[in-house]
Amino acid sequence: MNKTELVKLSNARLAEVPAAVGRPAYDRSALTPGIVHIGLGNFHRAHQAWYLHRLMQQGDAHDWAIIGAGVRAPDAAQRDRLLAQDCLCTLIELDPTGKSAEITGSMIGFVPVREGNGPLIAQMSDPAIRIVSLTVTEGGYYVDPATGGFDAAHPDILHDAASPDTPRTAFGAMIAALRARRDAGTGPFTGQSCDNLQNNGAILRQTVVSLARMSDPDLAVWIDDNCTFPNSMVDCIVPATGPSEIALAHQFGIDDAAPVTHENYRQWVIEDAFCAGRPAWENAGATISGNVHDYEVMKIRILNGGHQVIADPAEIIGVETIAGAMAHPVIRAFLRRVVTDEIAPHVKPVPGIDPLAYLDLIDGRFSNPEIRDTTRRVAFDGSSRHPGFIMPSIRDGLASGRPVPGLALVSALWARYCTGVREDGSLVAPNDPNWELLQPTAVKAMENPALWLGMRQFYGDLGDNAGFAKEFSGWLTALHADGVEATLRFYLDS
């Protein structure tokens, strides 16, 4: 299709969208806001916003529309892109049997991104807003990875505690809005984390209440007593958007500056703890459960942990995509062996699926050739993802007396990756918020592996376990001497 034939995405031109593309059947002009969502990345638009769109298509939840928000300067560019197309979004499902597209319309606005977050605070102070949800990445909650406690010494947190009326963080803005609502008598809202964190609601509560306590202890008590923070498990593989995704939208006849591609799978398990009401998420396919924990352990340990198992070795040897990593027989075998022997034994079954059947499910999902999910994206922020997704399985294995040689190798692969040089000599561009610490430590660990495990902010006391430290040291030495494939084969043959 020629560029001149494309339909520029907007309310005014929805009727011109090709018939094969789904579109809102509801009157978007009649929608009213009920949710502020902070962190308008691709995952949110393919997940929570889609669930809400599905409810709206059923004639429900029209008073729960989403207002987007961001707290970083780059979020302003996303705001401009989305407002220019009336906050509509093209979702493209990448099913191996055929692609399909639909336009979602559950988001109706985006607050201005300003230093001090005044517009965001004002929007969240509106009594119509009953849920504030977030996707701010696993490492965005100011948690000490070694202890799981609140990082009260972080410069952003110290700023917000000293300047609560002009906060820098999303959490400081939430606190300022809750203060205004308490003082006005308009009541609390629910804080809903949609990030890949075990106990994500409890962690969000910890961050908000702990930060509030630093400047206003009475408000902290009020928030803790009145607000709810439901735990949830979220799941959908959503690649980043680049020129190829924009070109894919063109194939459907749509000119969308910010389309989203996603796999043909979604899951959302939610604790029913909403102090100011909620949409009927279950009518859109979500699972409302009092046992979110077991679902999230399965997903975080096997899917998110599995991503870390394959991303680092693939990056080191120059495999660019997750599907490409799964097509590499040694990397795929490594994933299945590590999960089967060292992760799955510590994961409980959930209704409808056990851990090894779940491994088969993610094997197929990771192997989807239509999903161009890069190994670089998945390897990003290992300093949050390894403590969150890999180290809990290491600790469970050591506590139960089960061997963890494969997980020790996964940690060694992370250290090898952070040297910043692939096996072909190409350089790895910085790929972690803590790269300035990780990269030189990884280089020094080539000669002294204990230095890597000595980063207690990530490993806690794991480096004190002599057996684990010995296995890690042996694998790291082998990786540098023999290379990734030979080392993985040695593990698989052992």
Topology:
Elements: E1 7-8, E2 33-38, H1 42-46, H2 48-57, E3 65-69, H3 75-83, E4 89-95, E5 98-104, E6 107-110, H4 118-125, E7 131-134, H5 155-162, H6 170-184, E8 190-193, H7 200-215, H8 217-226, E9 232-235, H9 243-251, E10 254-255, E11 260-262, E12 267-270, E13 287-288, H10 292-316, H11 322-327, H12 329-343, H13 355-366, H14 375-379, H15 382-400, H16 405-417, H17 435-445, H18 450-453, H19 456-459, H20 466-482, H21 484-493
Parallel strand pairs: 1-10, 2-3, 2-7, 3-6, 4-11, 7-8, 12-13
Antiparallel strand pairs: 4-5, 9-12
Helix pairs in contact: 4-6, 5-7, 6-7, 7-8, 10-12, 10-15, 10-16, 12-21, 15-16, 16-20, 20-21
Short description:
This protein is an alpha/beta fold and 494 residues long. It has helices at residues 42-46, 48-57, 75-83, 118-125, 155-162, 170-184, 200-215, 217-226, 243-251, 292-316, 322-327, 329-343, 355-366, 375-379, 382-400, 405-417, 435-445, 450-453, 456-459, 466-482, 484-493; strands at 7-8, 33-38, 65-69, 89-95, 98-104, 107-110, 131-134, 190-193, 232-235, 254-255, 260-262, 267-270, 287-288.
Strand content: 5-15%
Report the sheet with the most strands, covering strand number, pairing sense and barrel closure: 5 strands, parallel
CATH fourth-tier homologous superfamily of the largest domain? NAD(P)-binding Rossmann-like Domain
Number of strands: 13
Mean pLDDT: 96
Apparent shape:
globular
Main structural class: alpha/beta
Spatial extent as radius of gyration: 23 Å
Domain Mannitol dehydrogenase N-terminal: 34-282
GO molecular function, one term: oxidoreductase activity, acting on the CH-OH group of donors, NAD or NADP as acceptor
Organism: Roseobacter ponti
Domain Mannitol dehydrogenase C-terminal: 291-474
